[in-house]
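FIELD: query
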Amino acid sequence: MGTLKHNWLAIIITSVLAQGIAAGIYGSISEQWMEWNHLTLEMIEADQSPLPFIVSFVNTFIMVFCLSLVFKKIGVHSLTDGLKWGAIIGFGFAFLGRYTQGHFQYNITAGLVDATNLFLAVLLAGLILGAWRRYENA
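FIELD: result
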């Protein structure tokens, strides 16, 4: 087994799939989510900028790349290792941080949904990066 290296295709595919998870979550509860965040359909329709979606994808890509850096450093060599570390990192950093923020914003339900979305994205990244490894030739 050689040295782990970044699997750019896995990072890109994971970033796209994570956006799909978010679309599924937020699309299924869009009306409630807008209410929890004090948004109206008129507000959303008035600003049809693609920028939030671009920022979301770029941020997800960077997050998955950073997870790949961590996995390379700690030596994640299997799907189960990736899932385990994805769950630990996802819960400790993605879920808890966003859930806490929801409390300070007096918006606990939206914070829980956002935290769950982030956790699932990191968990998915852990699973894919752990399962789909690349190694440098020795």
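FIELD: remark
The mean pLDDT is 94.
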